[in-house]
Write a structure and sequence with these properties.
heterodimer, A: 236 residues, Rossmann fold, 6-stranded mixed β-sheet, B: mainly alpha, two-stranded antiparallel ribbon, two-stranded antiparallel sheet, 11 helices, globular, binds adenosine-5'-diphosphate, binds magnesium ion
Chain lengths: 236, 297
């Protein structure tokens, strides 16, 4: 069953036509990935799904409900949260305050505490640093915080925008393990990456985005073995 | 006359802190609104004037006592602030910075002239809501108005600090100020958060207006211009966008002005405020409590 469907959306920045009629779907329970080079329109796509941008035309459906053009803060409440590119943690607040903000829309205190314990189990380093100002964390720790913060809204669908960006290989592996873990515990994932090899290797379904168009789609395995993808994104 | 100097110094400090706490109340609104919208709200001084007039109506016509008048004035100004944001600034949210600035100046002229139209340009005498008791503490003189001003300003600043740091709405305000898109991804409605910021900032300015009415007994439709600019100086002095900075900046400005009027001449009082602005812009443009670079990843 498709949890999210994007049908023929067109997104503009003023006169710039950034997304040119793309369609994609995210199956419930799986990991779907969207790969493509810098400037292809990956972040724009995620922003449009999250409601930060409005598509000029097209339709976005989440769990059967039309969410096209709905404001971002309402979409979060429906169970769809995003870990933005570049982390965007609240660098002037503590780790704990960041996590609290992740649960901003929730009132179920007990369940929030349960999720907080879960986040600290997944990311023990956040527990060690919970009273530290987020701006003083390392890049990897900030990525963990951004992911933990998104988990605090207890999303059923999580969008991740280049979580491995700027991280050392060991950390990249760790982040990908955690993404798999999050997915195993029942959260559907839509993962945007430039690190195509890693992304395709964990994805059930994959799309290739080039200058605002989807040029290829298939299972993660199919795209890993596709000649076109190997040439363009896997260095040979 | 050794002790004469010390005596005079302490006396001017008392005067300066009372005046400064009013600047601080106004500066808080500037800094909060700047923090969230990056807008210098030129109409803020006029909200302070509006607050003073509401306080005047409450005390002289409705015969309310100080506290109810203060509260009504704060609520009235909060509503006015929200309406101004909704009608004048929100449609300009994505407009170029200069256009929004000009809008703010327009709102300022609008408020001043509407008040001139309805209340006449003549100054009004603010009724004495307190019998002006003068207390002698040792050799120093403190009057009851100064105590009321200080206590009110202090209570309001403590309340604001609590709201901003501890409440859900306050956290939303801080989040939107730091990174609006990230805040939206947390589920924060930025429109209502901005509205709330205008309400709080305007309420504090109105409190300042009522307190000034009590202190100087006189209000007029243009009374917001100079204190508005000075409070802006105070906000920049403390570090614009930084709430404790506005409090510190306000108090420093008030004290400097009092010392200049007490020891040099009150003619130089206003010049002192602008000298401070120039010095701060030259040597620490980010303000006393501002960080050198904003941490941003
Ligand atoms: N705020 C913006 N204003 C104008 N153009 C933008 C903006 N953000 C992105 N773009 C343009 O839209 C296209 C897609 O960008 P983006 O979605 O960020 O790509 P990706 O995430 O795949 O690197 C690029 O050509 C980029 O220059
Ligand atoms: Mg991107």
């Amino acid at each position: 069953m498709d949890m999210l469907t994007v049908e023929d959306i067109n997104v503009y920045y003023g006169a710039i036509h950034a997304i040119k009629g793309i369609s994609l779907s995210v199956a419930k329970g799986g990991i779907t990935t969207l790969i493509g080079s810098n400037g292809a329109g990956k972040s724009t796509t995620l922003h449009t799904i999250s409601g930060l941008l409005k598509p000029k035309t097209g339709k976005i459906t989440f769990e059967g409900q039309d969410i096209t053009g709905k404001p971002a803060h309402k979409i979060v409440g429906m169970g769809l949260s995003q870990v933005p590119e570049g982390r965007h943690v609240f660098a002037n607040m503590t780790v704990m305050e960041n996590l609290d903000l992740g649960a901003y829309l929730r009132t179920d205190k007990e369940e929030i505490n349960k999720d907080l314990t879960d986040v600290f189990t997944k990311f023990p380093r956040l527990l060690e640093r919970k009273d530290q100002i987020a701006g003083t964390l390392s890049g990897g720790e900030q990525q963990m915080l951004a992911m933990g913060r998104a988990l605090m809204s207890r999303p059923r669908l999580m969008l991740l925008d280049e979580p491995s960006m700027g991280l050392a290989p060991l950390l990249v592996q760790e982040i990908f393990n955690i993404i798999k873990e999050i997915n195993d515990s029942g959260t559907t994932v839509l993962l945007v990456e430039q690190n195509a090899r890693m992304a395709l290797s964990i994805a059930d379904k994959a799309y290739v985005l080039e200058t605002g168009n989807i040029t290829l789609e298939g299972t993660g395995k199919e795209l890993l073995n596709s000649e076109a993808v190997q040439k363009a994104y896997l260095g040979g | 006359m050794e002790s004469g100097f010390l005596h005079q110094l302490v006396q001017q400090l008392i005067n300066g802190i009372s005046l400064g706490s009013i600047y601080a109340l106004i500066a808080l609104g500037y800094t909060m609104i700047y923090g969230i919208l990056k807008l210098i709200n030129f109409a803020h001084g006029d909200i302070y004037m509006l607050g003073a007039y509401i306080g005047f109506v409450c005390t002289s016509i409705l015969k309310l006592s100080f506290l109810p008048a203060l509260i009504v004035s704060m609520i009235g100004a909060a509503l006015a602030g929200m309406v101004i944001e909704r009608v004048a600034y929100r449609p300009m949210r994505n407009a170029p910075r200069i256009a929004i600035l000009i809008t703010a100046i327009g709102v300022s002229f609008f408020l001043e002239n509407v008040m001139i139209l309805f209340a006449s340009p003549q100054p009004r005498t603010f009724p004495a809501v307190f019998t002006a008791t003068v207390y002698h503490v040792g050799a120093w003189v403190v009057n009851s108005q100064q105590i009321v001003i200080l206590v009110s300003a202090l209570v309001l600043m403590v309340a604001l600090t609590y709201i901003v740091n501890q409440t859900r709405a306050g956290k939303a305000m801080r989040a939107v100020s730091f990174d609006a898109d990230a805040a939206r991804l947390m589920g924060i409605d930025i429109d209502s958060t901005i509205s709330m910021t205008f309400a709080l900032g305007s309420a504090l300015a109105a409190a300042g207006g009522v307190l000034v009415g009590i202190y100087y007994n006189s209000i007029d439709p243009l009374m917001g211009m100079v204190p508005g600019i000075k409070a802006f100086v105070a906000a920049v002095l403390g570090g614009i966008g930084i709430i404790p900075g506005a409090m510190l900046g306000g108090i420093i400005l008030g004290v400097v002005e009092a010392l200049v009027s007490g020891f040099i001449s009150s003619t130089f009082r206003d010049a002192a405020a602008f000298a401070i602005l120039i010095i701060i812009l030259l040597f620490k443009p980010q303000g006393l409590m501002g960080k050198n670079i904003r941490e941003k990843v």
